[in-house]
Amino acid sequence: MVLKRSGRLEPFSPAKLASGISAALADRPVSGSDVESVVDGIEGTLREAGPQVSSEDIGRLVLDHLRDLDEVAYIRYASVYKEFQDAADFEREMAELESAEK
Questions:
Q1: 71: Cα separation from own chain's centroid
Q2: Which of 1, 14, 24, 54 could make an SS bond with 73 (beta carbons 3.0 to 4.6 A apart)?
Q3: How far apart are the C-alpha atoms of 62 and 22, rounded to whole Å?
């Protein structure tokens, strides 16, 4: 089960996870099998975490995978997950991404 930010519980949906990842990867040079691999990796991690996880934990896992897979998709996903409000939020995230690479 997934604990949403609102406090509501809902069943984990691999299809919903794949849809969000695919949206972030739209028009990027990444294959469908890469998306499946990310979803499978996240599902495995979640199984090990126990019967209930937070949507925030899932979001962090997605960001970790996207950071390694495609930086543009990472920024796209982060903008929604972290609720960016303006260009400064994008700039800050880009700076963090660049410093993490070093």
A1: 12
A2: 24
A3: 11
**Tokens 């700076």 — which residue?**
95
pTM assigned to the model:
0.83
Helices (H), ranges, 50-86: 55-69, 71-81
pLDDT tens for the 102 residues of the chain, in order: 999 989 999 999 999 999 999 999 999 999 888 999 999 999 999 989 888 999 999 999 999 999 889 999 999 998 988 888 899 888 888 888 888 765
In angstroms, the CA 3 to CA 49 distance is 13
- One DSSP character per residue, 3-60 reads E-TTS-EE---HHHHHHHHHHHTTTSS--HHHHHHHHHHHHHHHHHH-S-EEHHHHHH
Full DSSP string of 81-99: HTT--SHHHHHHHHHHHHH
